[in-house]
C-alpha cells in the first residue's frame, strides 16, 4: 500500500484517502486529478473497503477507460473484471444489455452513430412528406439530441411555437421508428438507462447497493441527464447509495455546445452536502512559462470557482509565437519546428498539432504527407466510419438484427444487385403501411421486385446460418466474401486501400475477441443460445435479474453483438487511435485530458480561435478562452503558437486579425519568432517595424520560406497586410488585402464599425498606428 501512496503530495494523499463520503476535487489542469481518481480506486480495493465489483468509474473517452483499467491492473493483483469503468455511453450500453427486457429493447439492439442517425432522420422526413427546407434534417437531429440530453421525451417538450410543435411531433415518430428497428442513438442509451432505473425500483436499489463508490472524471463536462443519472445511482434522496467522488476543473468546461453544464459542480456540492472539497494546486505537467501563460489567460474569465496552479519544474523555455503569411506557410513552419524537436530526441508521438476546427487539418496534413512525416488524425474519419467498413458492418448488423433499416438500406443494393429505387420505394410503402421493418416487408413484395429482394434476404440468412458455429473473426471473413464486398472493391480502379481496410476488420474482430476475453472455443452463436452458453442471468436476493457480479460483459451478449456495439461506440470516440509513433493531429476539444512534450496551437486568429460562432453566444468568448486554456495546458516542455495573415477556409480566402488571446498572455513568457510582428502587434502600441527580410532570416527560419514570403508581401506599396492604420474619416482599421503593384496599389481595409473599404493607396491619407 505504501507503494500506492508514496508519490502523492499531501493534498493528493488527502483526496485519495478521503472517507467514503461524497467529495469534489476541484483542480486545474495537470494537477493529478485523473491520477488521484485512479489511485483512489486502487486504494479502496487494496484496503478492503470495497470489492472490484463495487466500483463504477466514468471517464470521458473509451481510450481513457482503457488506460485506467491498464493502470489499475498494474497496481492491483486482483481481477479487475467486475469493475465498471467506461464512458457514460459504454456503461449505459452495458446496463441496457443486461436488462434489455426491462428496458423494452430487443436483445440484439444496435447503436446508431451520428451519421446513421442523420440518414434515418432524412428518411423519416421523406416518408412523412415533410418539407426539409422548412424543417432541415440537421436541425431536427439537434433538436432530438438536445431534448434527450435534457432527459425530455417528445411529450415533455414545451412546444409553444409551431416549429417546435412540428419538431416534437417528428421526435415522437423518430422514437417509434427506432423502436421498430431495434436501434438506439447515443443520447438514447443514457435516457433509456435513466428511465429504466427511475421506474424500476428493485433494479435501482440493486445497483445503488452494488456500486459503493462512483467516481467521475472530467465532471465539469457532464450534462443534465448525466448528472441526474449519477444522482439516481448514488441514491440521492433515498436510503441507500454509494459515495460520489467527482474530479473536475471549471476552467476546462468546453462542451456547453453539447449541453454540458458546469453548474453541475456547485449543484453536486449542494445536493450531496459535500463536506470534502479539495483543491490541488501543484501542477506536475508543464514548465513555468507554459503554466504562467495558462494562468494569465484564464484570469480574463469572470465566472470562475477560483484556483491557481504552480509548478516546481522551473520556467523552462518561452512560448514560441509565429506569424505566417498564409496557412501553407504556417504548415511549413510547423514541419520545420517538428523536425527540430525530433532531432532533439522528442518522439513523434509526443508532438501534438492542435487546431480549433477540423477543416484546418487538410493543409497541415498535406504538408506532412509531402514531407514524408507520419501522422495520425483524431476526430477525422475514423476507421469504423469509413464507407467500406460501414458497409461490412451493415451486413453483420443485419445478421444480428435484420430490422435495422439503416443497415438494410445501406447494403440492399450494394454491391449492385439490380434492386432499383422504385423497388425500394415500394418496399418502404409496404413497411409504412404495416408498421414493420423493411426486412419484414419483403414477403409482401411480388414480381421481379419480390424475387430480387428475396434473393437479398436469402443472402443474409445464408450468411447467418453458415457462420453460426464460427468464431467472430472467421464470421467476418465469410461475410466479406459472401456479400461480394471484397470482389467489388478489388475490381475498383483505386480500391486497394479499401480492400485492405476491409481485411483489417477481420483483425479488428480478432483483437476484440482477445481483449474482451471471449473464450477461443466458445462458438460465436447468434441469438439466445449464446446467452445460455456464455453465462446465465440469475435472480439476485433482491429479486433482480442480474449477472454474476464478476462476470465479464460479454456473457450477456453474443460476440457479434458486443463487437457491433464496440464499433458504434468507438466511431463516436474522438480519441480512438492513439499510441502510434506519428505526429498527433487533433482538435483542441479532443485533446482534453491528454499531455505531450511539445504542442502547437495553430490558427490563432480572430474568427477562428476564438471561433466566430462564439460572438453569438453569451458565454461564447469565455468558453473559447477555456478551450485555449485546455490547449496550452496540454504541453509539458515546449509550446508553439501560430497565426496567419491569410488562409483558405471553406473555399474562401480569409484575412483575419491575430487572436485577442495574444493580448491576454504575459509578455515575458512569449518569444516572437517573426520580428516584424514584434513592433506591430504588441499591445502597448509600439511603432510598426518595416518588414525586414534579413532579420527574419536571422530568426532561424528556412530561407526558401523567407523568400516566398518576401515575394508575397513585397507588393511595393510600402504597406502590408495586417497593418493597423488610421483614416481621418473612417477611424482605425486593419489592412486585410492589397492588390496591384507599386504606384497602383489598392488596399482593402477593415474599419470595424465603419465597415470594409477599398482605398487607393496613392491617394488615401492613411497613418500607421
Ligand atoms: P487534466 O486536467 O489535463 O485532465 P489532471 O489533473 O487529470 O489533468 P493528470 O493527468 O492526472 O492531471 O496528471 C498530470 C501529470 O502529472 C501526469 O503525467 C501525472 O502522472 C503527473 N503527476 C500527477 N501527480 C503527480 C505526483 N504527485 N508526482 C509526480 N507526478 C505526478
Ligand atoms: Mg485528467
From TrEMBL:
<keyword id="KW-0413">Isomerase</keyword>
<feature type="binding site">
    <location>
        <begin position="27"/>
        <end position="34"/>
    </location>
    <ligand>
        <name>ATP</name>
    </ligand>
</feature>
<dbReference type="InterPro" id="IPR027417">
    <property type="entry name" value="P-loop_NTPase"/>
</dbReference>
<dbReference type="Pfam" id="PF21196">
    <property type="entry name" value="PcrA_UvrD_tudor"/>
</dbReference>
<dbReference type="InterPro" id="IPR014017">
    <property type="entry name" value="DNA_helicase_UvrD-like_C"/>
</dbReference>
<dbReference type="InterPro" id="IPR000212">
    <property type="entry name" value="DNA_helicase_UvrD/REP"/>
</dbReference>
<feature type="domain" description="UvrD-like helicase ATP-binding">
    <location>
        <begin position="6"/>
        <end position="287"/>
    </location>
</feature>
<feature type="domain" description="UvrD-like helicase C-terminal">
    <location>
        <begin position="288"/>
        <end position="593"/>
    </location>
</feature>
<dbReference type="Pfam" id="PF13361">
    <property type="entry name" value="UvrD_C"/>
</dbReference>
<keyword id="KW-0547">Nucleotide-binding</keyword>
<keyword id="KW-0238">DNA-binding</keyword>
<keyword id="KW-0378">Hydrolase</keyword>
<comment type="similarity">
    <text>Belongs to the helicase family. UvrD subfamily.</text>
</comment>
<keyword id="KW-0067">ATP-binding</keyword>
<protein>
    <recommendedName>
        <fullName>DNA 3'-5' helicase</fullName>
        <ecNumber>5.6.2.4</ecNumber>
    </recommendedName>
</protein>
<dbReference type="InterPro" id="IPR013986">
    <property type="entry name" value="DExx_box_DNA_helicase_dom_sf"/>
</dbReference>
<keyword id="KW-0347">Helicase</keyword>
<dbReference type="InterPro" id="IPR014016">
    <property type="entry name" value="UvrD-like_ATP-bd"/>
</dbReference>
<dbReference type="Pfam" id="PF00580">
    <property type="entry name" value="UvrD-helicase"/>
</dbReference>
Amino acid at each position: 500500500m505504501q507503494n500506492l501512496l508514496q508519490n502523492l503530495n499531501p493534498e493528493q494523499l488527502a483526496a485519495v484517502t478521503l472517507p467514503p463520503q461524497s467529495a469534489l476535487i476541484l483542480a486545474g489542469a495537470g494537477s493529478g486529478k485523473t491520477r488521484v481518481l485512479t489511485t483512489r480506486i486502487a486504494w479502496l480495493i487494496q484496503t478492503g473497503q470495497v470489492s472490484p465489483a463495487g466500483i463504477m468509474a466514468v471517464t470521458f473517452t473509451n481510450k481513457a477507460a482503457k488506460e485506467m483499467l491498464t493502470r489499475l491492473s498494474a497496481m492491483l493483483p486482483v481481477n479487475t473484471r467486475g469493475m465498471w469503468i467506461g464512458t457514460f455511453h459504454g456503461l449505459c450500453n452495458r446496463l441496457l444489455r443486461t436488462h434489455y427486457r426491462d428496458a423494452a429493447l430487443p436483445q440484439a439492439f444496435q447503436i446508431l452513430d451520428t451519421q446513421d442517425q442523420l440518414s434515418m432522420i432524412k428518411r423519416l422526413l421523406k416518408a412523412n412528406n415533410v418539407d426539409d427546407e422548412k424543417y432541415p434534417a440537421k436541425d431536427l437531429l439537434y433538436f432530438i439530441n438536445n431534448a434527450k440530453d435534457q432527459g425530455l421525451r417528445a411529450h415533455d417538450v414545451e412546444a409553444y411555437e409551431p416549429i417546435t410543435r412540428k419538431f416534437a411531433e417528428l421526435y415522437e415518430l423518430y422514437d417509434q421508428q427506432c423502436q421498430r428497428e431495434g436501434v438506439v442513438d447515443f443520447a438514447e442509451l443514457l435516457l433509456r438507462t435513466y428511465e429504466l432505473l427511475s421506474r424500476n425500483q428493485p433494479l435501482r436499489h440493486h445497483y445503488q447497493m452494488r456500486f459503493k463508490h462512483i467516481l467521475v472524471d472530467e465532471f465539469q463536462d457532464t450534462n443534465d441527464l448525466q448528472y441526474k443519472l449519477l444522482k439516481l445511482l448514488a441514491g440521492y434522496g433515498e436510503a441507500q447509495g454509494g459515495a460520489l467522488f467527482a474530479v473536475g476543473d471549471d476552467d476546462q468546461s468546453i462542451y456547453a455546445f453539447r449541453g454540458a453544464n458546469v453548474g453541475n459542480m456547485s449543484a453536486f456540492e449542494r445536493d450531496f452536502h459535500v463536506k470534502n472539497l479539495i483543491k490541488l494546486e501543484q501542477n506536475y505537467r508543464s514548465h513555468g512559462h507554459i503554466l504562467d501563460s495558462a494562468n494569465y489567460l484564464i484570469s480574463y474569465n469572470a465566472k470562475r470557482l477560483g484556483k491557481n496552479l504552480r509548478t516546481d519544474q522551473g520556467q523552462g523555455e518561452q512560448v514560441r509565437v509565429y506569424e505566417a503569411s498564409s496557412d501553407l506557410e504556417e504548415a511549413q513552419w510547423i514541419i520545420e519546428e517538428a523536425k527540430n524537436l525530433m532531432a532533439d530526441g522528442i518522439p513523434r508521438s509526443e508532438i501534438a498539432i492542435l487546431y480549433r476546427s477540423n477543416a484546418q487539418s487538410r493543409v497541415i496534413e498535406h504538408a506532412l504527407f509531402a514531407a514524408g512525416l507520419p501522422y495520425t488524425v483524431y476526430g477525422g474519419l475514423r476507421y469504423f466510419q469509413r464507407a467500406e467498413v460501414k458497409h461490412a458492418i451493415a451486413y453483420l448488423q443485419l445478421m444480428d438484427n435484420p430490422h435495422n433499416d439503416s443497415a438494410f438500406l445501406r447494403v440492399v443494393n450494394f454491391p449492385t444487385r439490380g434492386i432499383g429505387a422504385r423497388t425500394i420505394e415500394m418496399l418502404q410503402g409496404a413497411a409504412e403501411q404495416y408498421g414493420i421493418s423493411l426486412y419484414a416487408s419483403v414477403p409482401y413484395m411480388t414480381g421481379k421486385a419480390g424475387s430480387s429482394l428475396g434473393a437479398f434476404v436469402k443472402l443474409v440468412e445464408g450468411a447467418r446460418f453458415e457462420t453460426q458455429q464460427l468464431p467472430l473473426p472467421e464470421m467476418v471473413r465469410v461475410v466479406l466474401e459472401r456479400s461480394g464486398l471484397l470482389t467489388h472493391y478489388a475490381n475498383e480502379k483505386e480500391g486497394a486501400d479499401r480492400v485492405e481496410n476491409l481485411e483489417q476488420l477481420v483483425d479488428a474482430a480478432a483483437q476484440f475477441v482477445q481483449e474482451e476475453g471471449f473464450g477461443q472455443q466458445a462458438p460465436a452463436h447468434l441469438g439466445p443460445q449464446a446467452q445460455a452458453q456464455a453465462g446465465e442471468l440469475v435472480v439476485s436476493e433482491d429479486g433482480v435479474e442480474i449477472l454474476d457480479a464478476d462476470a465479464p460483459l460479454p456473457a450477456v451478449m453474443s460476440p457479434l453483438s458486443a463487437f457491433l456495439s464496440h464499433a458504434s461506440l468507438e466511431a463516436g470516440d474522438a480519441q480512438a487511435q492513439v499510441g502510434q509513433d506519428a505526429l498527433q493531429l487533433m482538435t483542441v476539444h479532443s485533446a482534453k485530458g491528454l499531455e505531450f512534450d511539445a504542442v502547437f496551437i495553430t490558427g490563432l486568429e480572430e474568427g477562428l480561435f476564438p471561433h466566430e460562432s462564439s460572438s453569438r453566444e453569451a458565454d461564447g468568448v469565455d468558453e473559447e478562452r477555456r478551450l485555449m486554456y485546455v490547449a496550452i495546458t496540454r504541453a509539458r516542455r515546449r509550446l508553439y503558437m501560430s497565426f496567419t495573415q491569410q488562409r483558405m477556409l471553406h473555399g474562401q480566402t480569409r484575412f483575419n486579425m491575430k487572436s485577442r488571446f495574444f493580448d491576454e498572455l504575459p509578455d515575458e513568457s512569449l518569444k516572437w519568432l517573426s520580428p516584424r510582428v514584434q513592433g506591430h502587434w504588441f499591445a502597448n502600441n509600439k511603432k510598426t517595424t518595416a518588414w525586414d527580410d534579413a532579420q527574419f532570416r536571422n530568426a532561424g527560419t528556412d530561407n526558401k520560406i523567407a523568400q516566398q514570403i518576401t515575394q508575397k508581401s513585397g507588393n511595393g506599396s510600402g504597406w502590408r497586410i495586417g497593418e493597423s492604420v488610421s483614416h481621418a474619416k473612417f477611424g482605425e482599421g486593419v489592412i486585410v488585402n492589397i492588390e496591384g503593384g507599386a504606384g497602383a496599389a489598392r488596399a482593402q481595409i477593415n474599419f470595424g464599425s465603419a465597415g470594409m473599404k477599398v482605398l487607393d493607396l496613392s491617394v488615401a491619407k492613411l497613418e500607421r498606428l
